[in-house]
# Entry
Amino acid sequence: MDLKGRSFLKLLDFTPAEIAYLLDLAADFKAKKKAGIPHKLHEGKNIALLFAKDSTRTRCAFEVAGHDLGMNVTYLGPSGSQMGKKESIADTARVLGRMYDGIEYRGFGQELVEDLAKYAGVPVWNGLTNEFHPTQILADFLTIREHFGSLQGKKLVYMGDARYNMGDSLMVGCAKMGMHFVACAPAEYYPNEALIAQCREIAKETGAVLEFLADPIAATKGAHVIYTDVWVSMGEPDSVWNYRIKDLLPYRVTMELMENAGPQCRFMHCLPAFHDLNTAIGKEIHEKFGIDCMEVTDEVFESDRSIVFDEAENRMHTIKAVMAATL
# Structure
């Protein structure tokens, strides 16, 4: 499969076969790394990482993957470039495209990473936008494959706010790969109707099932994976905590829900997670609202049903596959 020169901006741009190829390649890279087999396929190449939003997993995954492939990596943090301030996105893209073989962007609107790809002349990879987080979904799907053997027909229930990048991207990914996707939330927290309609058309070809339910017990019955994310996204004002907690507390992932799903069910989260009081934000929310966890209980997060750290590690293996395949 030839993906050379392609940008990786959203899963909608890729066929199920291409997604499966990237997962197979990631699994191969993971096996080589565990065995200590070098795989410097792109030695001497240079990549730039543009981060308008900070991250632990995304930055580390791109940097380690880049070094493993033999590349030189330049990190530009939120204050590290003039893109969008003193220099347009188009101009920044054309400058960086003359110096680098590939560019990663993590930030705000999807239109920004699309513009970078339009003008850069080299592959551009989406490390997260408000709308999509495709590298995270590859990591999630590699993890599901490792634990269940395949993706087709597996039931993934997304609990909570499904309107943004994670809900959108998981729905798209499940539609592409013939999975059973359930968004479990109040109706106002479902993905937008246009994207749902697009995914329903994809599902007709792949056999995927898409459901949108408000009842956590009904939604989680028989689930292979219960997935959640933080209730307030990066860049949103602190004031939204007041109504988010009220609206989404019934959708917290508890051991009751895990047991309702069945013994096969595993818990996933893209991290960071507010499962205890060991963070500054966790303590602040506890003082204001009197709760000791948010989207998931510590009991679930620390249980043997939780595969969140397998998932976090797989960010690096799948990002490596994306870069190796497109350069």
Remarks:
- The first strand starts at residue 46 and ends at 51.
- The chain has a mean pLDDT of 96.
- DSSP finds 13 helices and nine strands in the chain.
